[in-house]
Design goal:
Number of strands: 30
CATH architecture: 6 Propeller
Number of helices: 1
Strand content: 35-45%
Radius of gyration: 21 Å
CATH class: Mainly Beta
Distance between the termini: 42 Å
CATH topology: Neuraminidase
């Protein structure tokens, strides 16, 4: 094993004044911009303080505006039923040829107790007892919703996912419940493909070769079509980081059904990523081990015998491709829950060309974080060069921006209290994504499920 320490070590502490929220981390934030449009992003940070929203929905900086595009419990424009609950991961695609605007494919992380299920639609329903799935919301060039329909139904706990190389959405089930559990008639824990242009073309077919586990997010290597996958397992041993080698790389819609090989990452002598604390720690002896049973017919993958110790991590969540590397997030680690160390967030970079894994950012708790609530989850790069992350913790919830200097600043705050005056609870943000032009940010509030379009002076 070769283990190196970066000579560069930066500590950043950012606070939002009267808002009382803070994030602190160490690391070289410019790592996250390498090889992307954001490489030329401005170094200065922030859009000013957040202005309280008189309607009590979303606080934004002065000069920014939001529009509520969709809200759970309202009727889908298609008439198929109610807008489902628990809005989560999302991506924006160009509208169909001949129309302006975008199509948003939106996950619904519905469990059996969800208030509003994804309506079952013939040809788009995997398991009639599954409450989750995706909806497709088309927004016109004038910013108005034009259509809203079911993209896939009958799945469960659709958390995140990611766009493919051919403009479809891969939606991930964050569960490994089998048929007979929670009334399900089929096994769950799969990835499904959704074509925003024609959901019936993609149907409701599980991509079984990509594994059955508690999926979170995916990212594609544009050079060869390899798909990287994160696992957000809820209990020890925690999740693994995977890659899928497709039989038909970059093959187009439906090609992933042809199968491929699923592998899990192993870093020798590092059983748990949470024990790594030094920013710039680099491991250039990464191994990829074939998964013995991708369908997890008898044993969950993370419990399977790989013939050698594997490398696990708690709360593996966001995942995206930038430049020549894949970046993935461990949202937090708690030693009292079984992790080897404690942190409030890590961002890792794996570079296939050099086979190197590097810790590029680490959040608290030993770097001055005010509260244990600031856990990074989704991470997104805007086409115009901004880095944004969604918070998934306790108390008030924010979307944050990060400048190339490492300054953290608030972009939006969820004002919707789903608890009580005595014990407020604010739904997390999820699915932050931008229109191809970079002029509009789209983001979800998980509960009550709400999709916002935010416009303003984006840089």
């Amino acid at each position: 094993m070769v283990f190196r320490m970066s000579a560069t070590r930066r500590q950043v502490l950012a606070r939002t004044g009267a808002l009382g929220a803070g994030i602190a981390f160490t690391g070289t934030v410019s790592e996250l911009y390498a090889g992307t449009a954001a490489a030329h992003a401005p170094h200065h940070a922030g859009y000013g303080p957040l202005v309280p929203d008189p309607d009590g929905l979303l606080d934004l900086p002065e000069g920014f505006r939001y529009r509520v595009l969709s809200r759970e419990g309202d009727q889908l424009l298609s008439g198929e039923g109610a807008v489902p609950s628990n809005h989560d991961g999302m991506a924006a695609f160009r509208a169909c040829r001949g129309r302006s605007g975008v199509q948003l494919v939106r996950n619904h992380e519905n469990r059996p107790n969800a208030a509003y299920r994804v309506p079952a639609v013939d040809g788009l329903t995997y398991d009639p007892m599954g409450m989750g799935g995706c909806t497709v919301l088309e927004v016109g060039g004038d910013g108005e919703p034009k259509s809203e329909r079911v993209g896939i139904a009958g799945t469960a706990v659709n958390c995140a996912g990611g766009p493919s190389l051919w403009d479809t959405w891969l939606t991930c089930e964050e569960t490994e419940d089998k048929a007979g559990t929670n009334g399900y008639t089929k096994d769950h824990g799969f990835i499904f493909e959704v074509d925003p242009a024609d959901p019936h073309a993609s149907g409701a077919v599980p991509l079984t070769a990509m594994g059955r586990f508690q999926h979170e997010a995916v990212a594609f290597d544009p050079a060869n079509g390899v798909v990287y996958e994160t696992e957000d397992a809820f209990e020890h041993p925690f999740g693994l980081f995977y890659r899928f080698l497709p039989e038909k790389p970059k093959g187009g819609p439906g090609s992933l059904r042809a199968g491929g090989e699923l592998q899990a990452m192993r870093v020798p002598d590092v059983p748990d990523l949470s024990v790594v604390e030094e920013i710039g720690a680099t491991f250039d002896d990464v191994e990829w081990i074939e998964v013995p049973d991708p369908l997890a017919a008898g044993t969950p993958i993370r419990h399977q015998d790989f013939g050698r110790p594997m490398t696990h991590a708690q709360k593996l969540e966001g995942c995206y491709w930038g430049g020549r590397s894949v970046y993935f997030v461990s949202s937090y680690a708690r030693s009292d829950q079984g992790s080897g160390g404690d942190h409030f967030g890590q961002v890792w970079r794996y570079t296939p060309r050099t086979n190197e894994l590097k810790l590029v950012i680490r959040f608290g708790p030993d770097h001055g974080v005010d509260t244990p609530g600031e856990y990074p989850d989704n991470i997104a790069l805007s086409p115009s060069g901004g880095l944004f992350l969604c918070e998934d913790g306790g108390g008030e919830q924010f979307v944050y921006g990060v400048s190339r200097r490492g300054e953290v600043f608030p972009v939006a705050r969820n004002r919707q209290n789903t608890g009580s005056a005595e014990e407020p609870a604010y739904g997390e943000f999820a699915g932050v994504t931008f229109s191809p032009s970079g002029r509009t940010m789209y983001v979800n509030c998980y509960a009550p499920g709400t999709t916002f379009a935010i416009t303003g002076r984006w840089r």
